[in-house]
Every structure is written in C-alpha cells, then in structure tokens.
Design goal:
binds magnesium ion; Rossmann fold; 26 helices; 6-stranded parallel beta sheet; alpha/beta; about 750 residues; binds adenosine-5'-diphosphate
Length: about 750
C-alpha cells in the first residue's frame, strides 16, 4: 500500500495506509472496523450529527421519543444477568438543565465499552429513545459522545457532533479523533477526485477535500448536508461510470452480423401474423433489427407492461438471426415457463417451425426444448438438434448452461425474466458462441427508469408502453375475509358465473401443500424484488394448492366444474398435460401456484382468484392478474386475504387494486420496500457501497450522473486517463460488492 505513494499519477492520498498517519492505533480501526486506508476512513461517514441546540432537559423528556441530552454520570453498575448470558450495565445520569435537577436511568446490555467510559463524574451527550421501565424514565443502549468540560466556548457549543457507526472497541469519539488527524494532514494536492475536473466544474461541485472536511467537521449541520450532496452525486457518478465502462467494453467486442434477409422466415412470419404489431413493437423491432445487423454484440433490455407483447418482439429478433444462418437460445427461469414458451412458440410459428417435417415450410426451422428433467433419449435428441444447427431456437432453463450443450452457431441469447440470471450466467452462455452473441434481456414487469438505469445499467434499454389493441380492462378487488368471512362464498359464486358463460378461472395459492407444514416456493419465477413474505407473518394456515384442489368437491357453487391442479413439483409430463387441457378449454378451473405467473397465455380465462394475496409482492400480483383479460373479455382479479384491514401488507393489495399501470405500481412498490432489497442483500450494511444515494429518491441525480459518465466513457472507454475514478470504482464496488451489478 505505502509503496503506491511513489508510483506516480495513479496514486491518491486516499490509498495511503492509515498506519502511516496514525501509527499503532490504526490497528484498532483495521481490526474492528475493517478500515485500512485513508480513503476508507474518510468514507466512513457520520451516521448523523448531534446538535446541542436541540438538547432536552431530563426533567422535560417525553416518553417514546428520540431525545438528545447532556448529563453527568452519577453512578454506574455492572452486573451479570440472571436469566440470560451476558452483562447488564446500569448507569444513572443527572443534569441541572432548565432550572431543575433531572435524573434518568440508562441500561446497556453487554456494554463493555460503556462500562469503561461512563465513569462517575464523566459528562457526555446521550441520544436514544426514551421508554418507561418500572416507573422510571429509561434509555436502553443509548448512543453517547463524551464531552470536555469547556462548555463556555460558543463555537464548540454550536458545533454539530458527528456520530459515527461505531463498535464496542472503537467509539464514535475515537473515530472522530482519527478522522481529525487525517484531515489536519491531508494535502488536497494529492487527493485525486473520482469526479473528473471538467465535470466537477460544470456541475459546480465543491472540492473533494472540502467535502471531506465538511462532512466530518461541519461548523453547522447544513455544511454537512452540502457535503453529502457532493458525495451523493459522486456515488451516482462512480456507479454509472462502472456500468458505462462495462457497456462500452462489451460493445467493442466482435459479433457476427445478422442482417435481415428478404423473403426469409421473419417476412413469412409477419405475413402470417393474425394481428398488426403495435407501434411500440414495430419501433423496438426496428431497433433490434439494426442492432442485430451490426458487427458488435447487442446488449439490450426489453421492458414493458405485462401483456405488451415482449415475447413476440423477441421471437421476431430470433427469426432474423435464423434467417442469417444463426441460432437463438431462449433462457427461462423455470421449467414450466420453458415448457410454456416451447408450446406457444411452436404454435405461433406453425409450419415455420416444422423444418424438415412433412407439411412444414420448406425453409422452416425447429424449436427444441431442453430441460433438466427430460429423459436421456429426449435429451440426446435435443442436444443433437442444437449441435447440428437443425434447431433454430433452443429453449431451456439453467440446463442450457451445462457443459455438454453445444450450438452450431449461437447468434442470439434471449433471457426471459432476467432476475434469475446473473451476468455470470449470461457470460457462461456467451462462451458457447464462437463470437460474442447478441443478448436480449426481458423483464417480467416494468421498472422505473432510474432503477433500470442502475440495476440493468450495463444494458441499453427499450420499453414497450402500449398494450395491443383489443385488451380488456381488468378490475381488481380486495376480498377481506377478516372483515367479511362470508365473502369467500361470493368468490366461488363469481367463479361459477364466469364458468357458466364459457370462460375459465385461475385460483392461485401461495403454497403447494404436499409437504409437511412448510413450503410455498416451488421454483416458480420470483419477481425482481422478492416479496417480503417474512414481513407478513400470518397466524393462519396458508391456502395450499393440494388442499384447496382436494376440497373443491365440497364447494356447492363449483359443483360439476372440471378442475385441474398445477404446481412446480408435479411430474413434467403431467404438468404439460394439465396446461394443455387448460389451454384447450377442457379444464374450467385451474388451481395453481405462481407457476402460472409468467407467460401462461389463455385468452379465454377471465377470472383470477389469488388466495392469501398478502403473501405476494406487488409486481408479482400485477404479473399474475395480467393472465386474464387477454381475449377481449373483461378480466377480474380477486385478492383474497385473511389479514386485518389495517395490516401493513394490505397496503400492497390496495395499491394493486387501485391501478393497472405497471410503472406506477413499481414506483409504489419501491416506496413500500427498503432500498437494500433493490440492489440485493449484498448492498445493505456494506461499508463501501452507496451511502447517500437513494435510487428511488434521487432519479435526477442518477440521470445526470449517467449522462456525465457516458460522456467520459465515450472518450476513454477504459478510463485510462481517470485513475481516481478507477480507484473509486474499486473502492465502492470491491469484489464482494460487485455482486450488486450481477443481481443474480
Ligand atoms: P408479455 O410477455 O409482454 O407479458 P406476451 O408476449 O406474452 O406479453 O403477449 C401477450 C399476448 O398478446 C400473446 O398472446 C401475444 O400473442 C399477444 N400479442 C402480442 N402482440 C400483439 C399484438 N400486436 N396484437 C394483438 N395481440 C398481440
Ligand atoms: Mg412474457
């Protein structure tokens, strides 16, 4: 580390080891906070700031509120706890503020640091939430900052006190001292700003040195906020630069050009289409056609409203590639979806997918399915067709990634429902092509632009906003059984009515029910933001597919209805048969898990009943109801829940019932869930990752940063001229953190 200080331009003061400045105490920071370099310490930002101006006298403290107060320790007592392991420190503090004497109890569980520091007579500032315990005002595990006795100095009185994320062995105050030493010796000339000078000047950003000074030692708290703004932009910029660099580097790779071929399969397919493309489908189609015709790989995200016809857009791209002599692979997150895609693409293509078969189109191709649960003979046949090139389209799950899958000439990879596939898996599939293949990623549901720019930031983005004509509106209703237990009868009556008019009905349950007690998850596609199932613990047994299906016979309203059952743990042949029968209208009602969430397409289905709907996330519900209202008959979705009306999870249901606009819903979804879930678990709690940037709130900053970053990367894709930026990318997105770019 220390050596890099003489290595020239690529060196930043930020890389210097803390030991050089702090000596042996640096060991503590390294050991307990994993802070080794100047940059890491300076980026260990205060969590918040305490202001003395806002002190509360003990005599006035409100119960159940956060308070900050200055007081002196009167006594401190540590004792072992009787009922559980560990130590309990009880501290009594007093103040003489506001003309009265106040006294208050503090308790610290295992407060070994506090035991050492909070000695009788010591003055400190405490903050925490006041509770009433055994009739006494109490603060439990309050944060504190030790104070000197020089209260008279007015500067000092008003200066905000930074509160750092601290640990037992290294207090906030100690961190502040270390930071102070670093700031005092910091030479701004050796500080390489990750934000290029031109950008910083144009955007009127304060200097990096000043930002560090103000965020750590603000004279007034507003200074700290201004500094935070600088770091917020910086985070967005570094992130976007990393993504732009990745985009630029993949775009420079060579790909086989797959220009359109006049009179080929695509033209024949278009001529056979029973409907006209929407404007969006046509426009995005043109963009894809041009991408594919280029000799650099396409890397594009196709997002759009549920039912907007993304699969058709993808299929047309595949046909163009086949026309140009290549093959396409379609990667689905679950076997059911792969199966479904295989059936529907084969059906949609008709004779065009019967190449080499009697009655097939002369230049027709073949669509083959390759899944993990196929038997050896089927598998062998599929593998052969992929390797020989007879199969223009190979559809599969992760099984496509396995080593013995070979393609004759893989030209395009389509990834459906991206969130199950990380960059790594895409790279694996890429490696099966001679040159870099073109890649098209489809999302299940729309996501707000700024989130797309971040989570899928290494891809170009295309969006389908419009639904094909002839779609019928879907009305959605909450069915709160806690308020109206009898409404479940009305649900079944409603199902009966649909069936009597010749329509079909889905009933979705959160759980399979063929296992002991636990369950639910059956490998079906999860939404991008996995539902926070744990947040809604229900005392009730969840409705299960097996049980509900078994009890349908006892529902009077459903007498003589032909029903089927579908879930992920059924035998594949059985699954295929059930889906086939529902498709053909043989089955009037289908009880299923979320295996039907994506892709299943039965225009005659008009009612979707979702049992224990509170167990699903917003976009999952939105996706599910997109299964109805596809065939010109109005669709209805009933969200059945047993949760009380004021349960927080009911908010999600109300949101879904209130609008069918997917973009609006995904925005709402983001507001209701915590940020960490967006970028994946690796994001939360990390030191180096985003500290000030909130993807949901700071869209403008992200857009600005993205265009700034694009400009920089366009002129210097490898960022050779920007060592500070390269450094920051590593510092922010160190290997474990890089995971969030890979949202696997
Ligand atoms: P998505 O994957 O975007 O949710 P799909 O591709 O599954 O949507 O399309 C939903 C249904 O709409 C399919 O039955 C498809 O054949 C049909 N469809 C697609 N494009 C059109 C169009 N332009 N006009 C009418 N129907 C269309
Ligand atoms: Mg789809």
């Amino acid at each position: 580390m220390a050596d890099s200080a003489v290595a020239g331009v690529s060196t930043s003061e930020l890389d210097v080891s803390l030991e050089r400045h702090l000596g042996p105490p640096a060991k503590l920071l390294a050991k307990h906070l994993n802070l080794h370099t100047v940059g890491q310490l300076l980026n260990h930002f205060p969590r918040n700031y305490l202001k003395r101006g806002e002190l509360t006298p003990i005599a006035d403290v409100p119960v159940d509120e956060e308070v900050t107060l200055i007081a002196r320790v009167q006594s401190a007592n540590a004792r072992r706890m009787r009922t559980r392991k560990g130590m309990l420190l009880e501290v009594i503090i007093t103040d003489d503020a506001a003309g009265g004497i106040g006294q208050m109890n503090l308790t610290y569980f295992n407060g070994y640091g506090a035991e050492r520091e909070l000695l009788p007579g010591v003055r400190a500032m405490f903050s925490g939430k006041v509770t009433m315990y055994r009739g006494k005002l109490t603060l439990t595990n309050p944060k504190y900052v030790l104070l000197d006795d020089d209260d008279d100095n007015p500067d000092y009185v008003n200066k905000p006190i930074p509160v750092y994320p601290a640990v037992d062995k290294v207090s906030s105050e100690r961190i502040a001292m270390a930071v102070g030493i670093i700031l005092d010796t910091l030479d701004p000339a050796h500080l390489i700003d990750p934000v290029p000078e031109a950008v910083a000047r144009r955007d009127k950003l304060m200097s990096l040195a000043q930002a560090y000074e103000l965020v750590h030692r603000p004279a007034v708290v507003e200074d700290a906020y201004r500094a935070q703004h600088r770091f917020r932009y910086q985070e967005a910029f570094v992130l976007q630069a990393a993504l732009a660099r990745r985009r630029a580097l993949t775009a420079r790779e060579e790909a086989t050009a797959r220009p359109p071929h006049h009179g080929g399969l695509l033209d024949q397919f278009d001529a056979r289409l029973p409907f006209t493309l929407t404007n969006g489908q046509r426009e995005v189609g043109d963009v894809l056609a041009a991408d594919l015709a280029g000799d650099h790989p396409m890397n594009r995200l196709l997002q759009g409203e549920v039912g907007s016809g993304k699969t058709l857009v993808a299929l047309r791209a595949m046909l163009q590639v086949i026309d140009a002599g290549g093959q396409a692979a379609l990667l689905a997150p679950t076997e059911v979806l792969a199966l479904q895609h295989h059936q529907s693409l084969t059906r949609t293509l008709g004779p065009l997918a019967e190449g080499g078969m009697l009655g097939g189109a002369l230049d027709g191709t073949r669509v083959v399915l390759l899944t993990g649960s196929m038997n050896t003979a089927q598998r062998k046949k599929a593998l052969l067709e992929a390797a020989s090139g007879d199969a223009g389209i190979v559809i599969g799950t992760h099984a496509l990634l396995s080593e013995n899958v070979r393609f004759f000439d893989l030209g395009l990879i389509v990834v459906d429902e991206q969130h199950r596939f990380g960059v790594e898996q895409r790279d694996l599939l890429r490696s099966k092509a001679a040159a870099s293949p073109h890649v098209l990623v489809m999302t299940a549901t729309p996501i707000p632009r700024t989130v797309a720019m971040t989570v899928f930031g290494d891809l170009e983005i295309s969006t389908l906003t419009e639904l094909p004509a002839g779609r019928s509106p879907i009305s959605t209703h909450e069915v709160g059984l806690a308020e109206h237990p009898a409404w479940i009868q009305r649900v079944w009556s409603r199902a009966r009515e649909e069936i009597d008019t010749g329509r079909q009905v889905y009933v979705v349950c959160p759980k399979i029910g063929d296992e002991a007690g636990t369950g639910g998850e059956d490998g079906s596609a999860l939404e991008l933001y996995s539902p926070d199932v744990q947040a809604a613990p229900s005392k009730q047994e969840l409705t299960s597919v097996v049980e509900l299906y078994g009890s349908l016979a006892e529902v009077p309203q459903l007498e003589s209805v032909t029903a089927g059952m579908l879930h992920g743990r059924m035998d594949p042949a059985e699954k295929a048969s059930v889906m086939g029968r529902f498709n053909d209208g043989d089955l009037q009602l289908l009880v299923a898990t979320t295996v039907i969430e994506v892709g299943v397409d039965v225009p005659n289905a008009t009612l979707m009943v979702i049992m224990d709907a509170d167990r699903f996330g917003i976009s999952q519900l939105h996706q599910l109801r997109g299964r109805v209202g596809r065939g010109g008959h109005a669709g209805t979705c009933l969200l059945v829940t047993s949760l009380e009306a004021d349960h927080p999870s009911r908010e999600r249901l109300a949101a879904v019932a209130s609008t069918t606009d997917g973009f609006e819903l995904s925005q709402k979804d983001l507001e209701l869930r915590r940020e960490g879930n967006i970028l994946g678990a690796s994001q939360s709690g990390g030191r180096s990752a985003l500290r000030f940037l909130r993807i949901t709130q700071h869209g403008k900053i992200i857009e600005k940063a993205r265009s700034d970053a694009q400009e920089i990367v366009a002129g210097d894709p490898e960022l050779v001229g920007y060592p500070g930026l390269v450094n920051a990318i590593e510092l922010y997105l160190n290997p474990e953190k890089e995971a969030f770019l890979e949202r696997g």
